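Suppose you are handed a protein chain with no further information: no name, no annotation, nothing but its sequence. What can you learn? This example shows the usual starting point.
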Amino acid sequence: MRFRIVLPAALVMLGATGPVFASSCTEQIATIERRLDSAGAEKVTGKEPPGGPTSSNSAKALDKPPAVKPTDPSAKPTAGGVSEARALIEKARAQDKAGDTKACEDTMTQAKEKAGALP
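A reasonable first move is to predict its three-dimensional structure. Written in structure tokens, the prediction is:
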């Protein structure tokens, strides 16, 4: 009889230690970090990204940036905005690690606004 009670409890505990999936905020952080480490961000800030110089040797890279304007002209990127976006990403990463998804998503919205429309 005890075996019947212990087995379901053990299965519940085993299920609780299953795989951990990345949150949508984790994915947003990775996406915006790639943007902030892009050639466009390097052009705006005049600084080499933390991971080293960007490469234009990607098979997926465009020969030149598209000749379109952002839908919001006020979204012009600046070196200060890119720097602020990097700081906000660190804040979002801490919020995501703490499990505060809503705060992380709100912080990522601010980071995107600060980064602007990078070339």
